[in-house]
């Protein structure tokens, strides 16, 4: 069974790509410490240079912080993360189930400018954070998440990161087939219909997955 805290699933580059975060931003989150001495995102030591160093809980931490970009400055993000961890009494507070309730209030409190309305035509920060958090799944009785749905993939073909499947690689929620396998077969020249038959999906699902994955790789 994969340990959500200690087993490295993805590289920094792959995590940044899947979460739509610049590599350098994620690197800063992994190395910038709060006043309490904890990094914003809890990576682990890779077995070898360039190997995976991001466990599942860290993927979720980075995803939560992603929702704050454009609303809070880097110093404010650090302050808000530290306040949240202190309030929850949990070093991994950014990934706990309480983030979906009490955590939203803490982040809004630290937002720049008007707390109810975002600047420059952006949606209100509370609305944005709440929308992000609905893609995280927790099981009853477990305060830490077990699955993250990737927001960029449409509802017709939900794609998830679940450490129980594919060792953290994005998989189709419906049948747990790795997205890379689907895209590779299509890029090899197979038709959408053939790929759909191969993996038990519809043509529309395969098209949505391949188009989205191609945009992410561009």
Automatic annotation (TrEMBL):
InterPro entries named among the record's database cross-references: DUF433, Homeodomain-like_sf, VapB45-like_HTH, WH-like_DNA-bd_sf
Name recorded for this polypeptide: Putative antitoxin VapB45-like DNA-binding HTH domain-containing protein
Any Pfam family matching the protein: DUF433
Species assigned in the record: Streptomyces malaysiensis
Highest taxon, organism lineage: Bacteria
Gene3D superfamilies: Winged helix-like DNA-binding domain superfamily/Winged helix DNA-binding domain
SUPFAM superfamilies: Homeodomain-like (SSF46689)
Domain Putative antitoxin VapB45-like DNA-binding HTH, chain residue ranges per copy: 9-78
């Amino acid at each position: 069974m994969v340990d959500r805290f200690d087993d490295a699933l993805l590289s920094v580059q792959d995590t940044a790509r899947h979460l739509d975060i610049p590599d350098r931003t994620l690197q800063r989150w992994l190395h910038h410490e709060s006043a309490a001495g904890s990094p914003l995102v809890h990576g682990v030591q890779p077995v070898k240079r360039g190997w995976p160093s991001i466990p599942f809980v860290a993927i979720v931490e980075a995803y939560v912080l992603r929702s704050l970009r454009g609303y809070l400055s880097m110093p404010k993000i650090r302050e808000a993360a530290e306040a949240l961890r202190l309030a929850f009494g949990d070093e991994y507070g950014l990934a706990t189930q309480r983030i979906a309730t009490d955590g939203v209030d803490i982040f809004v409190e630290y937002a720049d400018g008007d707390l109810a309305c975002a600047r420059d035509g952006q949606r209100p920060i509370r609305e944005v954070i709440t929308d992000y958090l609905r893609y995280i799944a927790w099981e009853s009785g477990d305060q830490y998440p077990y699955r993250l749905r990737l927001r960029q993939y449409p509802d017709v073909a939900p794609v998830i990161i679940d450490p129980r499947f594919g060792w953290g690689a994005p998989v189709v929620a419906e049948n747990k087939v790795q997205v890379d396998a689907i895209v590779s077969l299509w890029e090899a020249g197979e038709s959408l219909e053939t790929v759909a038959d191969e993996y038990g999906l519809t043509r529309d699902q395969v098209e949505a997955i391949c188009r989205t994955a191609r945009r992410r790789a561009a």
